[in-house]
Amino acid sequence: MFFRRIPSISTKDLNEKLNEKPLIIDVRSPNEFKSKHIKGAKNVPLETIHSYHPKQKAYVICASGMRSKQASKILDKNGYDVVNVKGGMHKWNGPTKGGK
């Protein structure tokens, strides 16, 4: 259990789940989030992830996959069901929204 692997998903697979309205946590900065994000995603910057308590399985995304991996490890350690999104917004080809 010491080196528990965090499950991960591709951006393509996440895009296919959008109709299920998954909880998507975007851990980028508020400015990055405002410029372009997945519609319905919740912005919880990495530095505040310790105090976030998801109520359901969460898909964690950032720009490239590094911050989301860190955030996923923190949430997993705190007992939450999380999945890291590989490649982040750089690999995202699905619908996006600008602004809040």
Automatic annotation (TrEMBL):
InterPro entries, alphabetized = GlpE_sulfurtransferase (IPR050229), Rhodanese-like_dom (IPR001763), Rhodanese-like_dom_sf (IPR036873)
Membrane spanning segments where?
none
Q: Which UniProt keywords apply?
A: Transferase
Among Gene3D superfamilies, the record links this protein to: Rhodanese-like domain
Q: Name one Pfam family in it.
A: Rhodanese
> Which is an annotated GO molecular function term of this record?
transferase activity
- Coiled-coil annotation reads none
In what residue span(s) does the Rhodanese domain sit? 18-98
User: What domain of life is recorded for the organism?
Assistant: Bacteria
Note the PANTHER family from the entry.
FAD-DEPENDENT OXIDOREDUCTASE, SULFURTRANSFERASE YTWF-RELATED
**Protein name according to UniProt:** Rhodanese-related sulfurtransferase
